[in-house]
Design goal:
Layout: H1 7-10, H2 19-41, H3 45-49, H4 59-81, H5 87-109, H6 119-150
Helix pairs in contact: 2-4, 2-6, 4-5, 5-6
Length: about 170
């Protein structure tokens, strides 16, 4: 049985992401895990800091948000290993980080949330837009390079009239 190739010889364009991408996703993962755990352990604290009076009656809903944020954190940590392979996790994260602020703005405009809670949008969503978009752009380019590379047809085998390959005629 032939020896297995080492990792360094099996790497393709989808395996080689710049270190900054892995670092961004690692930091995003840790941040989301911490934020999620904080929301689960102390669900009313953010509302106290934002000056809510009265406090929400159902902190369990905020704890569920914390659970979702924590799960995103696990996803980002997994994606940090190979961002170009795990780009769907980054895409789902970016969509959440775009739609979250839209929902927040709608709630503020309808008077259902105070704008004082807006600082959470900056740290939870807006600061991640550019790096996540850049990761997705580079992942798309890497995938395109792989598709292009795979679509190149193999060289034609030149056969003589007897069915032998032309390279075998000298033998």
């Amino acid at each position: 049985m032939p020896a297995a190739k080492s990792d360094s010889t099996c790497r393709g364009p989808l395996d080689v992401a710049p270190a900054w991408m892995r670092q961004v996703l690692f930091v995003a993962g840790i941040y989301n895990l911490c934020w999620g755990l904080f929301a689960i352990a102390a669900p009313l604290t953010i509302f106290r800091w934002a000056g809510f009076d009265p406090l929400p009656l159902y902190p369990e809903i905020w704890q569920c948000v914390g659970m979702v944020v924590g799960v995103y954190g696990i996803g980002y940590l997994l994606a940090a290993n190979r961002p170009f392979i795990h780009w769907p996790i980054v895409l789902v994260g970016l969509l959440g980080k775009v739609f979250g602020p839209i929902g927040f703005l709608i709630a503020v405009s309808q008077g259902r949330l105070p704008s004082s809670l807006g600082w959470t949008i900056l740290t939870n969503d807006l600061i991640w837009w550019i790096p996540f978009a850049m990761i997705l752009w580079e992942a798309a380019k890497a995938h395109q390079a792989t598709v292009h590379r795979m679509s190149v047809p193999p060289p034609q085998r030149l056969l003589d009239p007897t069915g032998r390959m032309m390279s075998q005629l000298g033998a």
